[in-house]
Amino acid sequence: MKRPTGTPKRTGRSPVADKRTAPAEPKSPVRRHKAPVRRGNVVVRTIAGTVGLIWRIVWGSMWRLAMVMALIIGGATAYFYAGLPEPQALFDARARGSVTMLDADGKVFAWRGETYGAVTSDKIAPVLKEAVISTEDRRFYRHFGVSPRGIASAIKINLAEGRGPLEGNGGSTITQQVAKLLCLGETFDPIRWKNEAEFEQDCRGGGIWRKIKEVPFAFALEAKYSKDEILSIYMNRSYMGGGSRGFEAASQRYFNKHASEVNAAESAMLAGLLQAPSYFAPTANLQRSRERANVVLGLMGEEGYLTPDEVAQARANPASLSQAAEARAGGYFADWVMESGPGFLTSETTEDVTIRTTFDPRIQTAAERALKRIFDEKVSDNSKAEAAVVVMSADGAVRAIIGGRDSIVNGAFNRAVQAKRQTGSSFKPFVYAAALEAGYGPGDRIEDGPLTIRIPGGRPWSPQNYTRRYYGNVTLTTALKQSLNTATIRLQETVGRDAVRRIAHDFGIVSNLTTSPSLGLGASEATLMELTGAYAGIRNGGTSVAPYGLIELRIAGDDQPLMGQSGGMGARVISQRAAGQLIYMMQQVIDSGTGTRAKMGTRPVAGKTGTTSSYRDAWFVGFSEQYVVGVWMGYDDNTPLKGVTGGGLPAEIWQAVMTDIHEGLPELPLSTVSPDGSGILLSNDGAPRVVTSGSADDPLAAALAGAVNSANPAGGAPTQVTAPQTPGDSSTASSDDALSRALNGILGGN
After folding, report:
1. Hey, is 225 helix, strand or coil?
2. 3-state DSSP call for residue 65?
3. d(C-alpha 508, C-alpha 392), whole Å
4. Given CA atoms 276, 278, 283, 287 in this order, what sign does their dihedral have?
């Protein structure tokens, strides 16, 4: 075989070179990475991915939203914080002031408006603060204004009781309740709101938005004030029932003591009012208030503020009302004073006002007791008949008012001063007063017989007596004591209706008086207060009086009173002689006339019955030396009384009231004129005095009386001076006799 020639063609490495170099390291085998094994299916992977994505979105949104909310709440808190004043400026929540009324002895008996007394938490009894915290917010000192645990608990309770989560219990802390009391910083706007009550109702309302706003406001309160300052605001602004705002006013109202002096039982009762002030008010229902207080005492025991023995002791000795709060007397009287005074100082006052009055709680209680006794004994249980009573002194100072059978009321219809009713025969004394002033005497005679009066433009009018009988020629005394209609109208027509109208008006019957002949039978309307005041004018000797209850009004903190007495004695209406004669005649009404049921044993009293047509109204008005009392009875809807006349139940009520209010008082004689007209016997001061037939204000009469009385030792038989007689049927001395006229004209007498 032929050998290859020439240079060999290199392909690859030279074998020589390969030999000269170190042997190459063997090549490492190529490693191939395996793909990861995928577990699960596509559905699982999709769900997991979706959840992860949602979580990342939610988490990102949550912290961003939380940051935004924190900024909003922080901004709102800062805004509210900037508008909060000093805590003392938030204590008084009232837009108007209060009226505190004092009786004749200077003791509080009634309040109107919302009474208020500022007090800081350090001046409040510790047990009272503990009662409030136990009841309203047991974690008060441990939260920052809002209690999530309390809200969650409230939602749970609401849902368990079938209500919405935010209906009913709200889980509000005391701080949140203060936010509500402050209306979240809003103030009353009279243009936007009809009244303050509507404004406060809106403030107390619920709703999501208002509750959301409460949170930053509560935080602002916590940042601005200390816990005790927040508690002070709460305990001063809260309404506590009975017209009291704040715990100091409530403590004074119910217990007549300061909030720093209350014990555990009283503290529990006050704290219990916060849930429903009007419902749990002890003046509304003392037993219900005590039951609520027992619940509060239990809560105080659970919180460790009271030991079991202290809880048991407080429950065994429950809180009792003060005498004034328990009596609850004088509601009608207080309403009358508020209505009779100027509105800007009473019902619309923006200041705290104190009014000293003529009110006598002893007389009020006695009158109420007597009225109830008569109705319990003499009136059926289902009767809707009403009654009213007024008690006053002869100078017009009103001592008691009963405006209806339900005496424990405020703001109710007051029949004693608001109801105008026909007066019936109780008007007749003014007819006889006109006759006596004109010169007639108690022994003068008048015909009691059929009578017809022709009225221009109308039908003839023929009055009749109650008995449908006629008694012929009778004295004026008999005509009045038997309440004879025809004799009275005949006398009226003789002396003139204008004279009767003038005397009735001057004595205080300010209501519109008719000009018809029926005037003398009480066809006109008047209030019981008017009629009783007019009788007081007769009792005091013929001088008019203006009934009054206000003695003095002053603004709290002022040394000088702003108002003084607004009524009392007025001008003379009839002579003292005529008044004394009329009093004598009215005594006979009770001694042997239509008012015998009003007798008071040996005590001298005088009065007059009154019954209107169809028996719609029955009256009895009369007086002793000490008091004047008027009684009215009837139905509000004018339903006729069945078998009731002024000489029946009203006279019995009058007698019962007079008997109770005169307990312990001496039996004093009335100032009367002897029926023969020989002189006036005055016994107001216990020493008999005498005047002539002229006016009691006549200078000559006064001089003569002084001389006679100085000649007559005290305690001796009263001397009578016979005055000149006037010709005619009258057997009495006339105040218009020639001698009296001449002397009065010379000396300037009336």
Report:
1. coil
2. helix
3. 14
4. negative
User: Where on the phi/psi map is residue 457: left (φ > 0), alpha (ψ -120 to 50), or beta?
Assistant: left
CA dist 248 and 281 (Å) reads 15
* H or E element at residue 689: strand 689-691
pLDDT tens for 428-462 read 999 999 999 999 999 999 999 999 998 887 789 99
> Alpha-carbon distance 541 to 543, whole Å?
6
Give the closest residue to 407 by CA, choosing from 398, 416, 396, 397: 416
* Angstrom distance (rounded) from CA 214 to CA 180: 8
Classify 83 as helix, strand or coil. helix
In contact, 317 and 95? CB cutoff 8 Å: no
Bridge-based pairing of strands 421-422 and 525-526 is antiparallel
Distance CA 417, CA 333 (A): 10
CA distance 179 to 330: 37
205: left (phi over 0), alpha (psi -120 to 50) or beta: beta
Task: Flag the least confident range among 36-45, 64-73, 127-136, 406-415.
Answer: 36-45
Average pLDDT over residues 30-35: 52
What does R_g of the chain's alpha carbons equal in angstroms? Answer: 45
Q: Which three-class secondary structure state does DSSP give residue 330? A: coil
Distance CA 388, CA 529 (A): 10
Terminal-residue alpha carbon distance, the chain: 192
> What pairing do the DSSP bridges indicate for beta strands 606-611 and 550-555?
unpaired
Residue 452's Cβ-count burial label (10 Å; 0-12, 13-18, 19+) is: exposed
Which burial class, exposed, middle or buried, applies to 68 when counting CB atoms under 10 A from its CB (0-12, 13-18, 19+)? exposed
Largest Cα span, the chain: 208
Inter-residue contact 140 to 174 (CB < 8 Å): yes
- Other Cβ atoms less than 10 A from the Cβ of 67: the count is 10
d(C-alpha 196, C-alpha 656), whole Å: 45
Q: Say how far apart CA 536 and CA 541 lie, in whole Å.
A: 9
Contact indicator for 548, 356 with CB cutoff of 8 Å: no
Q: Render 152-190 in DSSP notation, one character per residue.
A: HHHHHHHHHTTS-TTSS-----HHHHHHHHTGGG----T
Secondary structure element (H or E) that encloses residue 554, with its range = strand 550-555
Which pair of structure tokens corresponds to residue 548?
């009054």
Residue 679 gets the label, from left (phi > 0), alpha (psi -120 to 50) or beta, of left
Q: What is the C-alpha separation between 582 and 541, in angstroms, rounded?
A: 10
Which residues, other chains included, contact 219 with Cβ-Cβ below 8 Å and sequence gap of 6+?
73, 77, 144, 145, 146
> Which long-range contacts (C-beta less than 8 Å, at least 24 apart) are formed by 29-36?
none
DSSP H or E run through 478: helix 476-481
634's tokens: 């009837």
Question: In 56-151, at which residue ranges do the beta strands (DSSP E only) sit?
Answer: 98-102, 108-113, 115-116
Residue 170 pLDDT: 56
- Does residue 595 contact residue 609 with C-beta atoms inside 8 Å? yes
- Among 370, 612, 381, 380, CA closest to 483: 612
- Averaged pLDDT score across all residues of the chain: 81
The pair of three-digit structure tokens given for residue 306, joined into one six-digit string: 């009271």
Model confidence, pTM: 0.74
- Judge whether 582 and 680 are in contact, CB under 8 Å: no
User: If pLDDT is split at 50, 70 and 90, which confidence band does 697 have?
Assistant: very low
